[in-house]
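Sharing a chain and its predicted structure for anyone who wants a worked example. Both blocks are below, sequence first, tokens second.
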Amino acid sequence: MINKKLIALSLTFLVLSIFLINLGSSVEPFDIIKETFSKWGSGGGLGDIMARGLLAIIVFLLISVGLSHIPSIGKQKGVVILISAIIAFIATAYFTPQEITAILTSYTALGLTVSTILPFLILAGFTYNAIKQQDIVLSMLSQIAWGLFALYGIYRFGTILNDKGWEGLGWPGLIVGVTIIIAAGAFIFQKSIRDALTKRIRDEEIERFKDEQARTRAVEVERAEATKN
């Protein structure tokens, strides 16, 4: 059931993305996809629209995770998604292509933090909260996000490799490579990870309940002894 919902949600997201891209460009949507893969395959990077979309996804994830922790609107998923989408769309609308390329492809400490490390940590926290809350919708969204993040990581790795070569990958290539492996694993083995974390959370709750019971019994014993005295 979850897999069917995941496929449906992924297809919906893909169709909506193509539609929005087509609204902002005179180019046919499938020409954009063809051009993107053509540039990617030749080492020419990504098209401006696709790069802007990737940055918008990162901003969307940052905003949605932040809003989900606000008590007044955190539980209203539709409101969180709507506000996050609007902010992400507006925030990335005024970046120049050069600025977007600098953010997405920079392998300096700041570039890696903004485009790789920070989204990775946020996704990890988002996934943990989704599993802890046993929210199927959030779990599906987190799986889609991990898949997109893995694809983005491959693109980042390709840009570093294209600029530096295998000998010059260094620590930026190592960081991006590790995040690709973890993101791909989180996407492929989402069910196993969810089951393992659910069991761990349940065990922790059982232990916490036992500790509370033990403390309650200890207090009752102390009160009983005090009453006798």
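Comments welcome. The mean pLDDT is 71.
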